[in-house]
Amino acid sequence: MKSAHIQWTDRFDDSFAYAYTNENRSDLKFLYDKPRPELFVTNKFILEAFTQFLDFFQNRTKIGRVTVSIPSMTDDLKKVTTRKNKYGQKPEIDYFRFNSYDYFLYTEFLRLSSGIPKSLKISFFYFPERTEKVLNGSILYHPKVRKITELDLRTVESDVSDNALHQLECESITVRSSTITNSGINKILKEWQDGLRSTRYLKVVSDDVQKAEIMDGVSKRTLQRGVWEIKNRFNVSATVTVSRVPTNLYDSKPTFEFAVS
């Protein structure tokens, strides 16, 4: 890493950018970002950028989108999040995105914010991590994550279990996990048909997706091969798709998809 960036967009849609680096050079590419950032040269550029970011964060009451890209939380960064700040605010956040596999990072920012975010997305810091790391699925048991409206884990492999998936109250869930079973997905469909779930969208990308096991005992109407219509007790329709053929770069494994019409 050669630089650290902060960019804020206020409620008037004006953007402010800051860049930190330990090299006093004018040819660094980030200097040509728009808006052109205010530049700081310092030895501990990541620490100082993160500290300023948190100063901004704790001086707001509501923020639309927060994206944090950090490979891992070092001890110095952890000290910043756990510092005592008697004037600090706990802002309400609409959308969180973390480009990191660091569990501490997610839980700290959920602690430092108020209410329940509408959306949470967890992705990788750099692309090769997708084949090197597995996301700790226990984050789904966090009380705020359980109730988030939209949960997006589509780009990271995780060890999410059936139990972790079942206890979620999210309306929209996208997850990559080969530890979720076909019987676990089947249970969710049956609970939705019985009116016990408010789920409106569920997508599971997994190594082992078996349509016979997933649709076993589920009342359905076949629309085409691998696609069915199902209804719940309130006569609400949903489409279920089970595909053994990868559909795109991120879904490079078989997929299950449930969507309320």
Can you walk me through this structure?
By secondary structure, the protein is of the alpha/beta class. It contains eight helices and 13 strands. The strands form two sheets. The chain has a ten-stranded mixed β-sheet. The protein has a three-stranded mixed β-sheet with strand order 1-2-3, with helices on one face. β4 (62-69), α2 and β5 (92-99) form a beta-alpha-beta unit. The longest helix has 13 residues, at 45-57. The termini are far apart. This is F-box associated domain-containing protein. It comes from Caenorhabditis briggsae.
Describe this protein with a few key phrases:
single chain; 261 residues; alpha/beta; ten-stranded mixed β-sheet; three-stranded mixed β-sheet; 8 helices; 13 strands
Report the average pLDDT across residues. 91
Q: How do the SSEs run, as a string of H and E?
A: EEEHEHEHEHHEHEHEHEEEE
Neighbour order of strands in the largest sheet = 4-5-6-7-8-9-13-12-11-10
Give me the Rg, rounded. 21 Å
Shape estimate? elongated
Structural class: alpha/beta
Task: Tell me what portion of residues adopts beta-strand conformation.
Answer: 25-35%
For this structure, the quaternary state is: single chain
Q: Largest sheet at a glance?
A: 10 strands, mixed
The beta-strand count equals 13
Q: Termini distance?
A: 45 Å
Count of helix runs: 8
